[in-house]
C-alpha cells in the first residue's frame, strides 16, 4: 500500500507541501503491521496540503457555480433543456450511454465473472451509504434505507436484510461522508465496520459476533482510527460559522459530520448558488488547513490531510490482515465522487484483485469497473 504522503489537490489546485503536526488519536488493535498506513501512523504524522485553501479561493471558477452545476445529474439538465424547448440530441445520448455501459457493464450481468474472480479469495465488502444503500432524497435527515419488505417478512427492511446477510459471510464496512454515529443510526447493524466522515472516523464492530467467525474479522474487531482528530475544534468552529453565514439563503442546510461539514444546496434555488458558494468560500478563507470538495448537490468541507475513502479501504484491509495480499477480493459499491478514491485504489490493485461498482443511472466519469442502476439492484445482486 502506498505511504500517505503529500496530498494531491482535487481540482488542479496547486498545493504547497508541508509537514503537519500529529494527526491525533489512533488506537488500532492489534497495531497493524508493515509499511503503509500503519507505519505512517507509528510516525504519528500525516502531511497536509497547506495552500489548498488558497487554491480554492483563487483559480478561475474553482468551486464556483459551474462546479456546483456539474454535481447536478445530467438527466435533470437534459430534462430542463427539453422543457425549455432546447432539446437534446437523443442519438448522441444513447450512443454515449451504450459505450459507457460497454466500459462499465452491469454488475448483475457480470455476476458470474465477479464470482470467478472471488474463487479462493476472501471477499471484503465496502458499501457507501447515501445513494447506495438509501435513495437520494431532499432531506438528508430522512435518507432511510429501503422500506420495502420481503413478502412474509413485514417490518424488516429489505436493504438492511441484504446487508445483514452479506455481513454474515464477509467482513463488511460502511464507508460514508456522514458522521459515524449518524450513519449507524440509519444502518443499525452492530456487526459492521463503520468509516464515517469520508473514512476519517473508523470503528470496528461492536457486536460480540463480528461480521464472521474468521480470524480476520476477529483481528480488526477493536479498531478505532481517527486521523483528523486534531481538526475537531476547527471543524466545530467552521460548522457554526457556516450555519450563521448561510442562514439567509433559503433551502441551504449545514450538516455537522464531525470531522467534516456538508453544505447542502439541493433545495436552494439555482439563482442563489453563486451566493452560497461565495459565502462558503468566504468562511474558508480563514481556514487554509481545510479544503472543499463536491458531492451530489453538496459542498463538503474537510481537513486537508491526505485521507479519503480509498485510504480508509486500505486501512481496513490492512487491519483485517490483508495488507499486500492477493488472497482477498475487496468489493466497493458507491455512487459519488468521493467513492472514486476507493475505485482508484481497486483499479491500481489490478485485474481480479478488486471490484469497484458504481451506482448510477447515467453515464459518469468513473474508475469503477461495473455499474448498477440504483440501490434496488444492489438487493438483486444478493439474491
Ligand atoms: O458518502 P455518502 O454516504 O454517500 O455521504 C455523502 C453525503 O451524503 C448525504 O448527502 C447526500 O444524500 C442526501 C440524502 O439523500 C441528499 O439530500 C444530498 O443532496 C446528497 O448530497 C449526507 O447528507 C452528506 O452529509 C454526505 O456528505
Automatic annotation (TrEMBL):
The family assignment reads: Belongs to the trehalose phosphatase family.
Source species taxonomy: Eukaryota, Viridiplantae, Streptophyta, Embryophyta, Tracheophyta
The molecular function GO annotations come to: trehalose-phosphatase activity
Listed pathway(s): Glycan biosynthesis; trehalose biosynthesis
Q: Please tell me the species this chain comes from.
A: Zea mays (Maize)
Q: Which cofactor does it need?
A: a divalent metal cation
List the InterPro entries hit by this protein, alphabetically: HAD-like_sf, HAD-SF_hydro_IIB, HAD_sf, OTSB-like, Trehalose_PPase
Q: Which UniProt keywords apply?
A: Hydrolase
The name on file for this protein is Trehalose 6-phosphate phosphatase
The record's Pfam families line, in alphabetical order, gives: Trehalose_PPase
As for what it does, the entry says: Removes the phosphate from trehalose 6-phosphate to produce free trehalose.
One biological-process term from Gene Ontology?
trehalose biosynthetic process
Q: Which reaction does it catalyse?
A: alpha,alpha-trehalose 6-phosphate + H2O = alpha,alpha-trehalose + phosphate
